[in-house]
Amino acid sequence: MPSEKQPKSQLEELGKRKMLTGSSISHSLKESLRLADENTINVDGSSTLYVRFKPTDTDDGFDSQSSSILGSEVELACKSLLEAIELRKKYFKENDVHQNSQFFSRSELEIPLNIKIIDGVFIPFSKDKEAYAKPISFHDYILDYNRLLFIASSGPVRTFTYKRLKYLEYKFELHKMMNRDREILAAKFDPKDFSNVFKVDTHVHLAAAMTAGHLLDFIKRKAHNFPKDEVVLNRDGSKQSLEAVFEAAKLKPTDLTVNSLDVYADNTFQRFDNFNSKYNPFGFSELRTVFLKTDNYNKGRYFGELTQELLDGLERSKYNKAEYRLSIYGRSPNEWNDLALWVENNNLDPDCNQNKWIIQIPRIYEVFRKVNAIKNFQDMIENIFKPIFEVTLNPESNPVLFKFLSKVSAFDSVDDESKPETKLRKETMPATPDLWDSLENPPYAYYMYYLWANIQSLNELRKLYGLSLFDFRPHSGESGDVDHLAASYLVARGVNHGINLERNTSLQYLFYLSQIGLAVSPLSNNALFLDYKRNPFPLFFKRGLNVSLSTDDPLQFHLTQDPLLEEYAIAGKRWKFSDCDLAEIARNSVLQSGFSHLQKQNWIGPNYHLKGVDGNDVSYTNIPNIRVSYREETLQYEFDELKKYTAGKSSISPCLIQVDYPKQVPTVQIEDVEACQLIQEAMKMRQKYVMDHSCVLAADTSDQNQSIRCIDGVYQVFRGANSICSNCEESFAIFECGNCCKRYCHSCDHTLHKNPSKRDHFRSSCEVNKAMFSPVSWEEFVVDLLRLEAIRLDGRAHTFSKTRLAVLELRYDLHCLLNDFFEKEGLKKSETDFERIIKVDTHVHALSAPCAGHLLDFMKHKITEHPEDMVLYEEGQHLTLEQVFNRLNIPFDNFTLDTLEMKAVNTFNRFDKFTSTYNPLGRSELRTIFLKKDNYLKGKYFAQLLGQVLKKSEERKCIKMELRISIYGRTVSEWDHLADWILENPELQSKSNKWIVQVPRLYHVFKENGDVENFQQFLDHVFKPLFEVTENPESHPNLHILLRDFITGFDSVDEEVTGDDLTPHSAFISPLEWNGDSNPPFNFYMYYMYANIHSLNRFRASKGLSTFSFRPHCGAGGGRSHLSGAFLLTDGITHGIVLDKVPTMQYLFFLSQLPISMSPLGEDAIYMNYDQNPFGKFFKRGLNVSLSTDAPLQLHSTNEPLIEEYSSAAKMWKLSICDLCELSRNSVLQSSFSKKEKEEWLGPSDKNDVNFSNVPDTRITFRHHSRHHEAHMVERVVHLKKRRQIREMAPTSPPPVSRTQQEVWKKNQEDEEDVKNALNRRGDAVEHHHPEHHHKIVFNGSTVVLLTVGLLFLPQIGSLAVNYLKKRFFN
Predict the structure, then answer these.
(1) Does pLDDT of 485 surpass 80?
(2) Which residue numbers are catalytic?
(3) In angstroms, rounded to a whole number, what is the distance separating the alpha carbons of residues 963 and 840?
(4) CA torsion sign, 1109 to 1112 to 1115 to 1118?
């Protein structure tokens, strides 16, 4: 038999679930468990997420003295916090205030008691002896209160609590990410859901508890059915009927609407006075008295009926309960009797099944004092408490009040907290309340003490008689001074609102540790003091504060007939709360409420009062034990840490964040396993394309008869002499047929050996003409791209990647939270600093490298000092610089930055406008003269201008550059011109710069102008000279030097547009056949750039020459398939902001550490607002990002554009010096400078040297561990075995094939043959698959949809199609 603590159902949870057998569970439950297990996979782990902190082995230069300073601060903070907790304990005894256990019977109290008020507090006496100890004195309270304020404002405490609260926030987010599926799965098998768990509206004022529609309907019913009811007694003794009241107000009941009711809080923000006026229906206080008051001529009959309707609504809802607030003002001692009679006469919930009353005491002493209703503050205290002390001692004196008090659960204190008030100081406060007789209202903390002290004394008295006790749960922290919350922390069991806790981390952390209930009303706060989106409720919830949702005043704030559910629904949608979150909030509301112990047992479980999972019954609460266990363990961990640090038993040292997998619940979703398999497949796919030239040895050059030829758009190097196909006499011979004794190209070999008589001929590869360095073929790339797109669009990979990226971001936040001190201390000991470390501008266009002010000064200098320079030849005429300016009507005397017109203004989403800013003063002639290398001056001005830029870089020493210079592919001579330009201008040969050749994707422009006939010719112009000079350096000596010493990489640039994905037209066509006017798709460019650079690099490596990187512009805009192509083909990308919308590709970029050079200021000008840029997010998550300037001429305002970029990023994303140094280090590693140079700047490549990089070992270790952990996690999950038996894809005994299936298979074979023919007729395929047609091909039930131009193949490509492509081209 199971023990008493054994879970009763599977709801009891995946957190501590045991595999129950036999009679302990029902058959249906066993089936549920079995189904759950079928959808999960074994893995060692725990039910909840554990975040462990492992000490690192790094030494960042901080010493024991620094550690001891931090340790002493932490120890002081912890001691102060524990002291504050002890202060609160003085004001509360650990008794359950709702346990109505009998201490004494009245007969046992032989000696009668009488009450006296001593120093403002009522105390029972027996023969001049106190019946029990007095509450803490006002004097001691002031000392405790001010001591708490001192602790809360202490620097060490504020720092410590801020970090602990952030830690709690991040830890909860990690918990949800890692355990969300487990919580959902646990909740699936219990009989509860959020709709049928109990919820208590712990903060709602009865006078506004109904909605506007309900009140209007009630008023109209009364006006229609009882117009003659006498409801008002005038001062002259006359009486007014309800009908007369409406006539006096000039209101016609039949025409009344919610709008005319005018109770909705629509103009009340920061206006508490306006809000109070909203209690008056139709703006008439008389109608408020008639319908919403208990003390009026008809003795509150209408209000009683309205309240009964509210209670009936609660009873109908079954799961909604309330704690309605009624007012006791302290103006007269008769208020209690009147209120009790009103409740009794209207028979309002006599059994307290739906509601518990809370007595609210408005803090309006000054109002009563001004009209002399009371003489001093003690009079108010007596009016509030004397009647209930007396009735407690003598129930027979007022049986109705005595009965009413049994239905009261708590006291509240209400009013506008934003009113100015004096501080509570011993020197300025009257010693006793009878001395407070001024017209000024006492401060908030003064009210708090006397209310608490009298409630505490009353509770002690009621304990003697075994009567119900009262909580004190005041309004606090809604607005005004945060000090109010300090008073509440000492004396309140819970508070209403508390949103000001966000302003004081010390008090917020203390409220968390003490688990003081917060009844928050976000819709109320939104109307009065704080916008909904800024409400700290979700933050409090994440951090583990004891929060619940309440309505406050539905009359003013809510629109539905179920205001509490409306509050939950809006919060759930706005803050993305799960059902588990909402259930936890609902359980908090029950625990915070003043309902009886027995009622709470019925609502949230018989053991609700126990801690942790022992007190949770998921069949009542719908909260998985995983969540409850997490909350309890986290709270206990915080107390343990405080005690450790206080005792000096916890060392202060750097640590690594270790996110452990669950141990107690051995489950991982099959979706996660399948997602990891997809991620691993994508990573392996990339490995085929990665350029590794180290395996190419110089010995490969021994063949002196190497030949170069372009095959299908890719230049390749072949061994030996040329061997031409014996049949077509055009193409290279690839195969040699032993039977035919002839050599054939690929196509001819395939065609001629279709004949059955020749199929058995023996054919082998022509080794003589075998390509030495063949890249992945175009056909294989298409298949890989389609497969990668399928992975990118796969929901499993998307969800998994999104979660892992969020985990990485949180891990970084935790790392900084726990290690920032040590990183800062480590940097203090470093021999360098951010100013002196090397930073590489990895993306800057030479055309825009000068700043606008620099260009302006340069142009002024030239027109002033060299006006006679011949700069232009036009229409057979030589023009001087002065003549050009005069001809363009440019008054250079008042030449300014504004007239230069080169700033990127109004260019957002307008790439055309941005490119127009390259023209000084909007004149293309000036761009040609000053910013072009191919002009009449042979680029002299441009070279001088760039020389000055490079000289400044050399002078700074810490700034290096990778300037982009264009090769367009318009003519084959461009390379020689570029080489001559750089070599003839020594100022361009700076050691602080490496040149990157950018190839604009402008084929369509050149085709339209007649510069090229097809895309193959475009490729020839770009790559043919490079292969020629590699084969024979003497053929282009200057180009040889340029490539050897200055060029280090390639880029591909132009505007990325949507809709330029692969289509049937582009998938089955070669560069030679691309002869139309349209521009090829992005990935068409990418592949042929990659393939030729790959082949060129292997060729150059075989000759011991330098090689080149390929880092194109990608992900600034355009289609998301661009990122897939770049992931496979490139060594890094520029921009990459679209990755933010593609979690799968972002995660793959992280795992592969593919470099991303970002320019937030540039992206802000064209693509994405600065504050929305994902750079900060990418950096936190560990993507390999660096900062660059892109186009200083258009984008930057200072003469230090790269530092400006760093500074802007630091301010926007709050980057530390350590962060900036890490980004600088990334820029060096991403750059194409030599290994020797990098080691000179960063230290040895096999380790981090903080004296070079200024990046602490702690940070490097964290980044390395994060990457290693993710890779290891993917590898580990991929190899998990599923619990359920997976059936074989093809059964050994296939079922009979129906006629329909036979017809489908026959059609599939025909379709497959169509694809074969299309692939064999590459040129014909273009015409056959016309881009305007929509073709659908079905292979074994899978689909390939060939869409119109601009759309990609749907990635769910049929298995037969993929296999056929691989077999046809790759085997």
Answers:
(1) yes
(2) 497
(3) 11
(4) negative
